[in-house]
User: What shape does this take?
Amino acid sequence: MDYQPVVVRKHPRPASTKHNAESRYWRQYRHPVFIKEYAPVTSVHFSPAKPHRYAVTAATRVQIYAPRTQKVTKTISRFKDVARSGCIRGDGKLVVAGDDSGLIQIFDINSRAILRTLDSHKQPVHVTKFSVLDQTQVLSCSDDTTVKLWDVPSQAAITTFLDHTDYVRSGQVSTSNPNLILTGSYDATVRLFDARTGECEMVMGDPSGEAGTRNTMPVEQVLMFPSGTVALSSAGPILRVWDLVAGGRCTRAMSNHQKTITSLAFNSDASRLLTGGLDQMVKVYDVSTYRVVHTMRYPAPILCMAISPDETHIAAGMSDGTLSVRRRQPKASEPASKDLFSVASLRTGAFESFLGGALPTLGQGHVKEKKKSKPVGDVDELKVESKRKKRLREYDRLLKNFKYSAALDSVLRKNVPPTTAFSLIQELIHRDGLRTALAGRDDVLLEPVLRLLLKHITDPRFGEMVCDVANVVIEMYTPVLGQSPLIDTLFVRLRKKVAAELRFQKELVKAKGALDMLLASAALSVV
Assistant: This one.
């Protein structure tokens, strides 16, 4: 009769709440690629057009990366000072960036030629963004406290807003109305401007306002929902939600970060909000409840962060000059993306844009399947099948040779799960070989046995067996107690843990009795 391997018993386990469906999705962004820049990475922006290349701004240059290879495809370094806020236009053809001299430049993304120069600002320009609905307009926000909306063809400012009294470090043109502009400033206010009137239509977070909406810290970032009815702002570690329809009323204030929040970003359908901060954390919020559903840790304080439109990449720039790019492999069940070779995709740039990532199989090679092809022969041929012998595990081999002590030692290692260890102990009990396996051990060989018992004495899956094994160990080694301080300490700890578990079980019995009495009285009152 052939040897029957040890059957590892499967115990019922409570459903784990550590990784729910939401957390499992965000944990798919794994294997981060770290790219070292020469200076802190201050801006990351993904192109809305395929292949979703992204612009990374650091020091005096803006680099364009290919999402599939994480390689630099273009480098724009025609800046006289530190570059800021490199942003790619919606069609993927132009890049706009400001610098610390106050100059704003618009480049052709393929030839890197300077197409327009806007030089009205007198101090560093920290925000330059194309309008989503009108791609001939550019928004700029500067440390000279002004906000400007530019007409790119004429290189002239359409409107200049002068209402802020301190540095303006964040701003956005509404994606639902090209005339509405949301800005945040170091004067602790969030303002909504209308380009048609040239006036500030709404002020939020004014330090002199109502107690519920008052803000005393510089506003680092602002973000508007695609609907244009709700705005978000970050000041210090506090994230605030503003209802623009209700006149800029603060509906919620959250403080889940330990340090200043430096970046805000939506996923593709604005159902999740990502926030990055100087506490080296990126937190994901469900916008329906504003509860944190996932947290990602980074090795350095985060200065900027963006998620690609197809939700396959999360890029984060850090203060130590590191760019981190996490990638998620979309599943086959997810909705297919648009045709890569559509007219719109082909018009977004020259052939190198496809080298940057639009061709999914370019340079990827051919992956052969692991299945072996079946040989084709005569119909009348017979094939003698060879059955592969199943290899036994180490403890099974030792058990087969009746080496009980060595088999027990093989499952007492750290990388062996407790279910396997106690299944082997159960098999030893059935073979009447437990005493043989435990006999003749010195303090070095007895220590792992006692540590296993000590660790799982309170586990309801193994508690009864642990007690049986502990009784055998105590009976066998009582005559030699006192010879090893380590073994004596482990026996004392085992005794204390059993006493604590007994006290806990008594309290549980008392609580159960009280609950039974309450339920019984409630049932009688109903009757």
Q: What stands out?
A: The chain has ten helices and 28 strands.
